[in-house]
Design goal:
alpha+beta; 3-stranded mixed sheet; 13 helices; elongated
Length: about 425
Amino acid sequence: MTRETPVVPVTLDLREFRDVPRSTDACVSLWERLEPAVLTLDPQAGPRVRFDLGDEGEVGVWFLDPASAPRPLGATTRFAIRGVLEAPEIRHACTTCLTAHTTTYAPYKCPGCDEGRRTGRACEEHAVFLEGSLRASCLGHTPVCRCGARAKVWCGGPKCRTRTAWCETHLRRHPGDPTVAYCEDCYAERFPACEHEHCTGSGYIRCEHRTLSGMKPCGRRICTEHARRWQVYGSYNRGLALCTPHHLRLSSTPPEGLIDMILAGTVARSSRGRSATRRRVQLPRISIVRHILINTRRAVLDMEAIDLLFTALEQGLRGRTPRDTNLSTALDLLSRHRVSRREDVERFRKQHVEGRGHYDRLVQELRRGGRYELAEAVEFSDFRPRSGILFVRVPERLQGLFRGKGGSSVRQLEQRVGVKIQVERG
């Protein structure tokens, strides 16, 4: 049985060889030139040897497993080239260095050198970075400001979005972080000035005053100090932000106008965000609207009257054409609001009956005490069974007499009637 000759694995070191073979045939041809000299070697005496090929450079042969190689090597010895070492090739060379006849690896692309072909590169030494972005450029294409001066910062504001660079002269530093800067336009957008007279604060809040006939909001910029929140959605929800002029006009706006503003503001809020968020935005219950009217206009209306205001508004809107998205949203809100309105009206009627009983006892107590003018002037307003509060309306000129010194008269009446008594603001 013929014993198979072992294969001698080698690696060619071509890092100093100028004409590196690029095909299998070229590699075999080079080995055939080296093999006669390789056969004269003892792999165990020196696992790495180099051959001088004159002008072509040097070629190294590495024996990967010298101990297993036959001794001596002969014509029947088989070799296997397991690997080839080549000199590193710089595929991305610095454009600036190339002009100086040097080749340096350039990890950064320079848009100015590219000219649309993505060939421009910059090395570590020639790469230029501006504040605000990791975008690089070479020394010759450093971004310039619109005024022609060398730029310092890429503006990351809402208008520039790091696409425009500016010099220090045309930058405004962040009021709380001087390491961040914006151009004038982006600064004005990001940190708008409060439009309240003589205010130096930032107007982060926009006035939300709008009506259904003109859904475009006031938009006046106001800071947190001068913004007025109209709490139309209860104490735990964010109210409508109003500037000072529109907030001052609330007291002179008729009830139907206030309800129009509440509906318009709710329509605007329901149009923001996802559909799930839109479903959660609802008109305030008319029990809340009643107190809104009391606090805003000093007008005390019963639930039936407020319900009629909403009904009249809905009927008027249904006659409008064309029906756009805002109008459709308003009608949808009013349609869903009808159920809670009916509940509040029914509850008000039941409370009205119970409250009227407390009111009648109050009038009797006033007459029993000889306070006939008050007995004739006091009017029933509302009753809260849960808190046990009877709300009454008393003419302003008689309120002091009704309350008594330090509220003593009211406390006596509360003990006799059996409920808390509170004078309605309006």
